[in-house]
Design goal:
The protein is of the alpha+beta class. About 25% of the residues lie in helices and about 25% in strands.
Length: about 270
């Protein structure tokens, strides 16, 4: 005889469970009795209950994972704050003119509360930490193999790395003058927050057959206290995409790169 489990005890003492598992029907006919008697029992009553409870547990577990995982956080950011949409490494929906004052993001010119915490502005300035680690030093600090672009513009080479956490690294590539360069952020999971850009500046493209988001332009201002204005002609580009659970964010400035050239660099990241 199979011992009664805790789940069975809960079912046997729960009035609602008893109502759901007991169906009142009329007495079976003799013909039905003979047919049932000739069949082998497939599932014991206790096993059926356990399967029902197990199914509910799977559904609850799936909903819990959605809430606590980065993907769940992205869903939340898709509706907050007003007008902003998360696009992997971009926060889309910022206005083209940013009023001065406040501290909503790095590089002033953002009204407080307009953008999610941790959001930065393309061309917005702010405190910048110099990527100074070698690739080998950065590799020892993260839990994944650091990929690199295999197709870079002529004269642009690796110049340093910056490790944000054991699942995130920023790689910097520059020419000899260090006035032109490429940045590549590699982060395990889905990035929440990111660079703030106006909605009209984003173009959906494809990297390795997967959706990617490309932006050309940046915010420009005349210094502290001035109004930052989106400049679509600025020589700044950003491309963000995801591959095998890793989010990539590539930025470049002063290199006069076309969208096709940026996508080519992205597809060479391995």
């Amino acid at each position: 005889m199979t011992p009664v489990t805790n789940v069975d005890r809960l079912f046997d003492t729960d009035p609602l469970a008893l109502r759901l598992t007991v169906v009142e029907v009329g007495a079976p006919s003799q013909q039905l009795r003979r047919r049932v008697g000739a069949m082998q029992p497939l599932v014991q009553r206790g096993d059926h209950r356990r399967r029902v409870v197990g199914g509910v547990a799977v559904i609850v577990g799936a909903l819990t994972l959605l809430v606590v995982t980065p993907a769940g956080a992205v869903i939340g950011r898709a509706i907050l704050p007003e007008g902003l949409q998360q696009r992997l490494g971009l926060v889309v929906g910022a206005p083209t003119h940013l009023p001065s004052g406040g501290s909503g993001a790095a590089g002033s010119g953002v009204t407080s509360g307009l953008l999610p915490p941790g959001t930065t502005l393309i061309g917005g300035g702010g405190d910048i930490a110099t990527p100074s680690l070698t690739l080998a030093e950065a590799q020892r600090l993260v839990t994944f193999r650091i990929p690199q672009p295999g197709d870079l513009p002529t004269g642009v080479m690796f110049s340093g790395a910056l490790v944000d956490s054991n699942h995130s690294v920023f790689l910097h590539y520059a020419d000899s003058s260090s006035q032109r360069g490429i940045g590549l952020e590699v982060r395990q999971g889905v990035t929440t927050g990111g660079s703030a850009v106006p909605a009209g500046s984003v173009q959906q493209v494809s990297v390795d057959g997967a959706p990617a988001y490309y932006v050309h332009g940046s915010y420009r201002d005349d210094g502290p206290g001035s109004i930052a204005v989106w400049d679509s002609a600025a020589d700044d580009v950003e491309l963000t995409w995801q591959r095998n659970g890793v989010t990539y964010n590539l930025t470049a400035g002063g290199l006069h790169l076309s969208a096709a050239a940026v996508i080519k660099i992205a597809q060479s990241v391995r």
